[in-house]
TrEMBL record:
The keyword Magnesium does not apply. Probable sugar transporter that acts as a regulator of glycolysis in macrophages. Does not transport glucose. It is a multi-pass membrane protein. It is found in: Lysosome membrane. Residues 44-486 form the Major facilitator superfamily (MFS) profile domain. The chain crosses the membrane at residues 41-63, 83-105, 117-138, 144-160, 172-190, 196-217, 343-365, 392-419, 431-452, 464-482. Gene3D superfamilies: MFS general substrate transporter like domains. One of its GO terms (cellular component) is lysosomal membrane. It comes from Serinus canaria. It holds the Pfam family Sugar_tr. GO terms for biological process: regulation of glycolytic process. InterPro entries: MFS_dom, MFS_sugar_transport-like, MFS_trans_sf, MFS_Trehalose_Transporter, Sugar/inositol_transpt, Sugar_transporter_CS. PANTHER family: PTHR48021, SOLUTE CARRIER FAMILY 2, FACILITATED GLUCOSE TRANSPORTER MEMBER 6. This is Solute carrier family 2, facilitated glucose transporter member 6.
Length: 506
């Protein structure tokens, strides 16, 4: 009897997705969204994004630590111009390995357990950093925290997108980036009062809090349905939406979508535009995101400010940039469900283009008159020199960097992660998200590894001019290839790539 009662509902739901909700169906969808209780959903998202907080904290750990280790009295821990680039970049190599392993973890353990698993290498990495007695412990600690970051960066956006509904998915999709930025800002602030060992100890706190909270959170209903666990999926959706809501209707929509997709992706299926188009869009976006230079700038922020003789102390400049970054991501979070994804991507890339171009031209035309002796030093060695401002024109690199970070945080930071989790089809979401993270962090590793040698060989302006060129490419790619997903369910987005009908996304 129950099966017969559900069959008409599933046919009605499936039909509504093939014609895109209009009239009565659209009104019912809006009424359903207004009736939902989001408190538990917000709690589940908060528990997950503590992993992003830890990721942001670990990513910029070298910024205040490299100057301290360059002046360390012990030769076993002292960094030089050869070891400092490895300390900065090896994190991204670990993150690439984390993204690669998540291709398996996401589909075997599930999204929630994959996030919880990341706590193990993260905690161990911080222990190694806090108790380091040699360079190998520093590098291994960075690799492990990077590996954990790769796992969380591939798992958390997918988890959030699968437990969220269209009414708040854009806002919640920005939360991973907000928490990563907040983690970086806390690191910069703590770096003003704590030494590098205690910074690593502080990094353990969000990791432990994440594991404890996630023990009480549900798994993704879509993942549970893909594993044939229908009762658990229904209970999970009930917990997330509220018992007095029409969650059963959403459950049938999700179930209908999952039923249409086989468990595994074959090589022959990769020729289907339904699969390769969203995977290609997501991968190229992650590639361009890193080529814009954000990881290099964040990792070497204090040395860059020392090199350009910014008028304030580099430590305070870094904290100020972190605060600007946090504010910009918060603006993106509240506006992307109203303004849309694409318009924010256009604005973001435009701001990054102007900022990088300004920074490159400033460094090229003002190297000697305002940088003094710093102009003749390497980027790493300049981190230990006292700031010697000579003119208020040295505020230009600080302002250019602030606007770059603001532009990135408004669009190409959070939206790239959000779109990846939105447009990837369920049957390939676990593998494809890991692949995208692998591409992202291999690109980041290459850039951070070669950033310092390029600066020392050709000057600091060269990478910034290159980043400006990439930002121009971001504008073109957004206009030609990126779909608008504002206000659409994951099933509607999949229907768009399956049929190619743009009416699904209007």
């Amino acid at each position: 009897m129950e099966h017969r009662d559900r069959e008409p509902l599933m046919r009605k739901t499936s039909s509504s997705y093939h014609t895109f909700p209009e009239g009565t169906a659209r009104r019912l969808d809006k009424e359903y969204l207004r009736s939902l209780h989001n408190k538990r959903l917000y709690l589940a998202v908060f528990a997950a994004v503590l992993g992003n907080f830890s990721f942001g904290f670990a990513l910029v750990y070298p910024s205040p630590v490299i100057p301290a280790l360059e002046a360390h009295p012990s030769p076993a821990l002292r960094l030089d111009q050869h070891t400092a680039p490895w300390f900065g970049s090896v994190f991204t190599l670990g993150a690439a390995a984390g993204g690669l392993s998540t291709m398996l973890l996401n589909d075997c353990l599930g999204r929630k357990l994959s996030i919880m698993f990341s706590a193990l290498p993260s905690a161990l990495g911080y222990v190694l950093l806090a108790g380091a007695q040699g360079l190998w412990m520093l590098l291994l600690g960075r690799v492990l925290t990077g590996y954990a970051g790769g796992v969380t960066s591939a798992s958390i956006p997918v988890y959030i997108s699968e437990i969220s509904h269209p009414g708040v998915r854009g806002m919640l999709g920005a939360c991973p980036q907000i928490m990563a930025v907040l983690g970086s800002l806390v690191l910069y602030a703590l770096g003003l009062i704590l030494d590098w060992r205690w910074l690593a100890v502080a990094g353990e706190v969000p990791v432990l809090a994440m594991v404890l909270l996630l023990c009480f959170m549900p798994n993704s209903p879509r993942f549970l349905l893909s594993q044939g666990k229908e009762e658990e999926a229904l209970s999970s959706l009930c917990w997330l939406r509220g018992e007095d809501t029409d969650y059963a209707r959403e459950y049938e929509q999700i179930k209908d979508s999952v039923r249409k997709q086989s468990r595994r992706v074959s090589c022959a299926e990769l020729k289907d535009p339904f699969l390769y188009k969203p995977i290609l869009i997501s991968g190229v976006m992650r590639f361009l995101q890193q080529l814009s230079g954000v990881t290099c700038i964040l990792v070497y922020l204090q040395p860059i400010f020392k090199k350009t003789s910014v008028i304030l102390k580099a430590e305070y400049d870094a904290a100020l940039v972190g605060l600007v970054r946090l504010s910009a991501v918060a603006i993106a979070a509240v506006s992307m469900d109203k303004a849309g994804r694409k318009i924010l991507l256009f604005v973001s890339a435009g701001v990054m283009l102007v900022s990088n171009l300004t920074m490159g031209l400033y460094i090229h035309f003002e190297p000697a008159s305002h940088n003094g002796t710093v102009a003749n030093t390497t980027l790493v060695s300049s981190a230990n020199l006292p700031a010697e401002p000579t003119n208020y024109i040295t505020l230009i690199p600080l302002l250019a960097t602030m606007f770059f970070i603001m532009g990135y945080a408004m669009g190409w930071g959070p939206i790239t992660w959000l779109l990846m989790s939105e447009i990837l089809p369920l049957k390939a979401r676990g593998v494809a998200s890991g692949l995208c993270v692998l591409v992202s962090w291999l690109t980041a590793f290459t850039l951070t590894q070669f950033f310092l040698p390029v600066v020392n060989a050709f000057g600091l302006e060269v990478p910034f001019l290159f980043f400006a060129l990439i930002s121009a490419g971001n504008i073109l790619f957004t206009g030609c290839c990126v779909p608008e997903t504002k206000g659409r369910s994951l099933e509607q987005i999949e229907a768009f790539f399956r049929t190619g009908r743009r009416s699904f996304l209007r």
